[in-house]
Amino acid sequence: MKQLRKYLTTVMYHYVRDMHLTQYPGIKGVKTHQFKEQLGYFRRFYNFVSLSDCFRFLNGDADALPDNPLLLTFDDGFADHYENVFPILRDFKISGVFFPPVMSVKDAKMLPVHKIHFILAGADINSVISEIKVQLDLKRKKYTDIPAFEELFSKLAVPNHLDPGEVIFVKRLLQVELEENLRNEITDQLFEKFTGESESEFAEKLYLNVSMIREMYDSGMEFGGHGYTHRWLNSINRDEQEAEVKKSLEFLRESGVITGLDCSFCYPYGGYDDSLLEILRESGVAAAFTTKVDFSELSQENALTLERFDTVHFPFDKNVPPNEYTLKALELNNV
């Protein structure tokens, strides 16, 4: 009897660009040739599937997914996805799922997290930290509960396997630690100082626009919600969560890239809670993606908490033997 249970391997991408040829070579992402090589690797061991295939499977069509299925997802709505990813997927005859935040596409505003990326990529880290110290001192009259700089640095500057402590300090301080309005004010000051470009001009170059999205959709690409402002959705109240989901899905419907009953969502930073899950169900979201690293056992029960792998979990060489994650996927799917 044919096995009905399927384990899906979903791979998450962000920047896909030849960053070494740009003004910001320090941006961390996947180079174009690496992306091609990785697709070649996947083609040897997996079967590419679309989001629509997953919807059909979740709706009871046991034949909708092939053996050892793999889904490609692309977060944050970068122009990279149109300029570099889309032509390659089209050549490979593969469908990807793209999750653009509305604010960046519709309003030409940069997401704070991306401002931080380009601040760090375009400036010396010691200069960035010195300016942060200056800004914290200037803000203390308005925000009276800011801890001492030394206390913040000691708490946050903890290196990991990806970044030195100084970089972690900047990221954690400006993404999580400070109150939201304060961290956005400081981030804006740093971005203006270290990039020398206006936010709108930078955003228009960095992100997709509606015509790009339509062209991609017309060629078989798929789109899902990623919030309006790309906030941590598990850190805001229910009314704000509802607005984020509603505006995100409305934008995609108005753009003509969600046309059926089923739609998808991707949690910014992977953050969700029970309230948000309830809102998604009420909004007709059939599948939603986290940043938890694992395989997804596709079922109605876990369709709103689907796990994903990062691109770095797989080789950028199409000719190498299957790695540990690929071997595990083959085992789980009895291939």
**Shape field:** globular
Q: CATH first level of the largest domain: which class?
A: Alpha Beta
Radius of gyration: 21 Å
CATH architect. name of the largest domain: Alpha-Beta Barrel
What name does the CATH topology of the largest domain carry? Answer: TIM Barrel
Overall residue-averaged pLDDT value: 95
How does the SSE layout of this entry go?
Layout (H helix, E strand, L loop, with lengths): L6 E7 L18 H14 L1 E2 L2 H8 L10 E7 L3 H14 L3 E4 L2 H5 L5 H11 L2 H15 L9 H8 L8 H13 L2 H16 L3 H8 L3 H9 L3 E2 L14 H17 L8 E4 L7 H9 L2 E5 L6 E2 L11 E2 L13 H9 L3
Parallel strand pairs: 1-3, 1-9, 2-3, 3-4, 4-5, 6-7
Antiparallel strand pairs: 1-8
Kindly describe this structure.
- There is one protein chain.
- The protein is α/β, with parallel strands linked by helices.
- It folds into 2 domains: 228 residues, TIM Barrel (Alpha-Beta Barrel), CATH 3.20.20; 90 residues, no CATH class.
- It is 47% helix and 10% strand.
- It contains 14 helices and 9 strands.
- The strands form 2 sheets. Strands 1, 2, 3, 4, 5, 8 and 9 form a 7-stranded mixed beta sheet that branches.
- The longest helix is centred in the C-terminal third of the chain and has 17 residues.
- It is globular, with a radius of gyration of 21 Å.
- The chain starts with 6 loop residues before the first strand and ends with a helix.
- The relative contact order is 0.17.
